[in-house]
Design a protein that fits this description.
heterodimer, A: mainly alpha, two-stranded antiparallel sheet, B: 6-stranded mixed β-sheet, 14 strands, binds adenosine-5'-triphosphate, binds magnesium ion
């Protein structure tokens, strides 16, 4: 595949630079509140988790959850607006772009948005002393892969959606459970075995498994296989979104 | 292709050499419904080809097949020398499209819209800046270059969409109802611009519900209904073939009785639509003389036009 997806990505970047970049500073506010309130407030009761102060344990989880949420929102609400309300993709399809170019450009954009939301959290965490060393910068490519995965999955849902209301089901049935059982807030050792196995089959826990040691300076294990799971989800979702959107837009 | 018609006499020789669109048996179904039911037509370089038909006739569906936005269920299609939909991407590099519904980017200014759309064609750099300046002048939008889309009038949006469709200097332009909803001034401006494009040897395919617009702009027309071709020809040819030269529309008290008693014998063809009787005739004298003796009947005497052809062929009932 060539770089024909690039103008699609650049279009979204141009809109973001115009409308949202001025509010970038706001991206620091929410993670700061979370880390202060949960990390220290709740952390005061919890004490240490797996040998780490709770705020340190939590920071890496929030980075991954934010990557997931941001890519999901972008791939659902914003992409749906471009597809169904503004008919932006219809305009692109009248130019020499194909469905694959549009979807790839959108997915890479959702992953870019994940980076934009996760980087400030990393900085806030570092300022709070919740990051071990510079090795933590390797978190960014993992965040990007997480964004690709959840952005692609969100586009599949968007391709099927009749309205914005449809997305509530996806949050309730997929995103929120993942958020809760992927080791973001607490280690998975405590949950039933079945839930642990289930989490292993899903992408978010694998992102957490890499990001946490990178941020806390603990030893890394099985990096490739942990990356492979979200990448497989991204590929399968990309393919499925292509099939569904071709049916939807080109019938 | 098997179905290619004889090139129309109205075109000169070098146009005949250049077939821009060749459609054979073009068909599209939506479920049990036939949107386009096997139509054949050709479009030649440098002409303005009008696609007319009532609401739901299949015009937009036909245009979407031409641009490769939806694959035909049956039939053969070549546009600008490319097989469609197989080579649609290559063809679209040489195509401009004004869609029925505007899809300008609401988050961008006028110029940003043009820059962004150009990027889909791989266009950028100083050459693009010059092209955008030219297009802003062409669309009479220089003063609005930095304005947001929300601040534009309907006519300005349509002109911007036309400018956007020209960003790649296309050989073929597809315009789906380019002037619907515009005021007379805005339509005049679009007409002038479309004529200028024809002067640059571009080929235009347009749909419209305004018959005088089709009569004015189009070299040839195809009227379709229910996904089938009714007639093809130049506006003058179609009017001559289907309608008597004079049309008199008559209404007023007692018009029905007058028509049944006297009027019908003075005309070649008459038709009642609501309160009005439409009379079609070759020699208008006897009819006008008879009407001069009935001052209570009000009438309008005019030449046959394309609207008469359209209504005769597609019927006068309302379409939903
Ligand atoms: N995506 C679609 N799904 C289902 N039916 C469709 C679709 N697109 C068009 N149709 C149907 O196909 C028929 C032809 O539609 P089309 O839009 O081509 O008509 P049109 O001639 O452009 O009409 P108008 O003048 O109202 O724009 C209509 O009956 C329409 O309802
Ligand atoms: Mg239409």
């Amino acid at each position: 595949m060539t770089s024909r997806w690039l103008p699609v990505w650049r279009r979204n970047l141009r809109v973001w630079r115009k409308l949202s970049a001025p509010a970038l500073i706001g991206n620091f506010g929410e993670p700061l509140l979370y880390l202060l309130a949960l990390g220290y407030g709740l952390g005061g009761f919890v004490g240490e988790v797996k040998g780490l102060p709770y705020v340190v344990f939590l920071a890496s989880g929030i980075v991954c959850a934010s990557a997931m949420n941001t890519a999901t929102f972008e791939g659902l609400y914003s992409a749906y607006t471009r597809m169904a309300v503004q008919n932006t993709w219809g305009g692109m399809l009248a130019a020499p772009l194909a469905i694959e170019d549009i979807i790839l450009g959108e997915i890479v954009w959702t992953a870019t948005k994940s980076l934009i939301s996760a980087a400030p959290i990393l900085i806030v965490a570092a300022l709070l002393g919740a990051v071990h060393d510079w090795q933590a910068l390797w978190v960014l490519p993992v965040v990007f892969v997480t964004g690709l995965c959840f952005g692609a999955m969100a586009l599949v849902v968007t391709a099927l959606a009749k309205s914005y209301d449809f997305f509530i089901y996806y949050f309730t049935l997929v995103i929120t459970p993942l958020f809760l059982v992927s080791g973001v807030f607490f280690p998975l050792e405590g949950v039933p075995r079945a839930v642990q196995i289930g989490a292993q089959l899903l992408p978010l826990s694998h992102a957490v498994e890499i990001v946490r040691p990178l941020m806390t300076g603990q030893p890394l294990h099985d990096v490739l296989s942990h990356l492979l799971v979200p990448l497989l989800y991204a590929s399968a979702a990309f393919w499925l979104a292509t099939v569904l959107l071709r049916r939807r837009l080109m019938s | 292709m098997g179905c290619v018609e004889r090139p129309p006499r109205s075109l000169n020789n070098n146009m005949i050499m250049d077939v821009v669109v060749e459609a054979c048996g073009l068909t599209k179904h939506y479920g049990a419904q036939t949107a386009v039911g096997g139509i054949d037509f050709s479009v030649y370089r440098g002409e303005c080809f009008g696609l007319l038909g009532p609401n739901g006739a299949g015009k937009t569906t036909t245009l979407r097949m031409l641009m490769g936005a939806t694959p035909p269920d049956a039939g053969e299609l070549r546009v600008l020398g490319h097989a469609i939909p197989q080579q649609a991407r290559e063809m679209r590099a040489r195509l401009g499209v004004v869609p029925q519904q505007d899809n300008l980017d609401p988050d961008f200014t006028v110029v940003e819209n043009l820059i962004t759309y150009a990027s889909y064609f791989g266009l950028r750099g100083p050459q693009l800046s010059r092209r955008i300046d030219d297009l802003l002048a062409f669309a009479a939008l220089e003063a609005k270059a930095g304005a947001g889309i929300g601040t534009l009038s309907g006519g300005m949006k349509r002109r911007l969409t036309l400018a956007r469709a020209l960003i790649n200097d296309p050989d073929l332009l597809i315009l789906d109802e380019p002037t619907t909803g515009l005021d007379p001034q805005a339509r005049q401006l679009i007409w002038q611009r479309l004529r200028a494009l024809l002067g640059q040897d571009k080929t235009l395919i347009l749909t419209t519900h305004y018959m005088e617009e089709a009569e004015r702009l189009c070299d040839r027309l195809m009227i379709i209904d229910n996904g089938r071709v009714l007639v093809t020809g130049s506006p003058a040819e179609l009017i001559r073939q289907h309608i008597e030269p004079h049309v008199v529309e008559i209404h007023g008290p007692g018009v029905d009785a007058w028509y049944d008693g006297i009027g019908h014998a003075l005309v070649r063809r008459g038709e009642r639509v609501g309160e009005t009787v439409f009379c079609y005739t070759v020699d208008d004298r006897p009819l006008l003389d008879a009407l001069s003796r009935r001052p209570e009947l009000r009438f309008m005497h005019r030449h046959a036009n394309l609207e008469d052809v359209f209504l005769k062929l597609t019927g006068k009932e309302l379409r939903e």
